Amino acid sequence: MKQRIKTKRLFHSGALLLALLISLFLASCSVSESDLFPTDDSTAPNVVIKAENDRYFREDEWVRMLTLAISNLEDRSTLWSSIPNVQRSEITLSDFIMYTDFLSASIPGTVKSYSKATDEETETILSHVVKTDQSLTPSPQEATIWWIESETSDVRGSRFAIPVTSNDKGVPYFSKSWLQKQSRLFHYIVLYLDAVEMQNASALKSLIQQNITIKSKSHEESINRRASSLVELYPLYVAPGKTSYRIIEIVPGFAEVEQQGIPSKGTTQLNRTVTFVESDGTIIANELFPQILSSDDATLYYRERPLLGLGTNNPRIEAERIIPLLGIPLDITILDNTDSDTSIFRVAWPGLTVEAIGTCHIPSLTFSGKVRQVSATYTQFSTGSGLTPGSSIYELYKRYPFVREQGYVLSRGKSVKKTLSVQVETDFIMRLTITIES
């Protein structure tokens, strides 16, 4: 278990080492077979497996071979030699070593058994591959999922899913494209979580922006904000150390990591999950951290003037105030008038819609009510912090680095709850909607 860094000197040494590892990862450096194995034959491996049909390993034999490799890391060269050539022709011994290394690192304790996943489990896991990469060989439809069950010294059981790829004749084999993508994703996860553990925002920034073209100053600032926020939030929500997390699923283009949470006072410890998704060479971590709507962004302005007094707990819309400001409405609609005293109505102007509950008389253009929702699509409307329809999405990320994981929905308040929903397209904000509940 990695020890906590306690001195400034050691911290900088660790940071430099991590930066070096990241640079090697980003440069895609490979390890030669001679680096992995000594040439001395004095320690001859003794693990042997043979195909029952003398031609190739069946699926169950294939998984057994992998469990032997995981459990006997020093004997992998012998196991490699025992694999029929037709089933390992796409990869090298180095590839095999790297693959079984990350399998071993992902499976805690001692391997106890293995079993084939159900059809439903297989469909769920392989759907992650289908969504992230359509160019793999073979296709996900030609793969199956097997579970490797293990047990730790404190008798905690766990299982890890591994994909088994097969050729058009149904013969299992090592697919180079599958192994490379899984290995790359694994090493990214290790570097990412090490950077968080060491509170190295610079290393995190390098990983986050890998294979990304920086489009603007606000784009770069949003990446900096995310990296610094990760360093700030992880100690508050995630237990430290390598033993505090485990990879529970990793397939080409997708991985899920389970982490031990830090319990609040009087509460039990809750685990959290982080998913890593790769698309077009870019890996994105999906981190679920609380994002609280600021009071500034709970208020809507028109040309820098408060539109409806949304900073108050009970904002209202009054015809005599808003018509001089915005002009005659394009439309007024009664949505519900089942109550004899009040009705729910909607008033619309170019780029703005307000929904309220109160009184409304359409012929006389009079209305007054408590605002329930206001939605803006024109640039002259903005929040107090300056977010407007048409703004770069990175302006939003600068303020709320984990809003994407929250579905672009932010809230504040209890007795009066205000929620900002942001509609985005490509890299721009298209609509801002503030909802008030009391």
Short description:
By secondary structure, the chain is α+β, with helices and mostly antiparallel strands. The chain is built from 11 helices and 18 strands. The strands form 4 sheets. Strands 10, 11, 12, 13, 14, 16, 17 and 18 form an 8-stranded antiparallel β-sheet that branches. A 4-stranded antiparallel β-sheet has the order 4-5-6-7, sandwiched between helices. Strands 1-2-3 form a 3-stranded antiparallel β-sheet.
Give a structural overview.
The protein is an alpha+beta fold and 438 residues long. It is built from eleven helices and 18 strands. It has helices at residues 8-26, 33-36, 59-71, 76-82, 93-106, 119-132, 176-197, 201-208, 217-237, 319-326, 393-399, and strands spanning 110-116, 143-151, 157-165, 245-251, 254-259, 272-279, 282-286, 300-302, 305-306, 316-318, 331-336, 343-349, 352-361, 366-376, 381-383, 409-412, 417-425, 428-437. Strands 10, 11, 12, 13, 14, 16, 17 and 18 form an eight-stranded antiparallel beta sheet that branches. A four-stranded antiparallel beta sheet has the order 4-5-6-7, sandwiched between helices. Helix 8 (201-208) packs across helix 9 (217-237). It starts with 7 loop residues before the first helix and ends with a strand. The relative contact order is 0.09.
